[in-house]
What we know:
single chain; alpha+beta; 7-stranded antiparallel beta sheet; 27% strand; globular; disordered N terminus
Amino acid sequence: MGLFPKTIVVACTALGLASCSQMQTDDTFASAKAASEKYRDVDVALAAGYIPDPSGECVESPAGGMGIHYLNMALLEVTRADPRVDGTGTHTDFLNPAILLYEPQEDGSLELVGIENLVFQASWAAAGYAYPPSYGGSEWDAMADNPDTDMDEAHGFTPHYDRHVWVFRDNPAGMIAPFNSNVSCEFH
Length: 188
């Protein structure tokens, strides 16, 4: 089989290029969701090597929440954690995400709400890439701490690119927005 399933090629031909692009993006998100479905059970994530963010933080902002990040350090290729998390990772495969996003529930359980990948900017450039990675039709977000502000825009990491994908929780701001107003840290 070619790059795209036959049904998508036929539909794209019939609907035109703009519709084709949207169908490919929808299929990309659906594939990522299906591949991550098993991690709805946090114990499966733990057994697969994911660990809760060592800071214990549940990330929330006026724009919405991200939840608690569960990190796969091997996929991120973390080399140090102090003073900032750094690594050599250039992993961009959303069928095997490096980060899982969980929302704490009132009963103490965790609900999988999204997935994320993160690549370190220096490693990405060293690998020969001139532009940020892209997924879902757009470039990933570039994150670096601004020392002139009180908040840590890079969330404890060295400069990096990241992409949040809200495949398990509807996001009014869009499937790939950094924050989701439908995610809360109320029960953390």
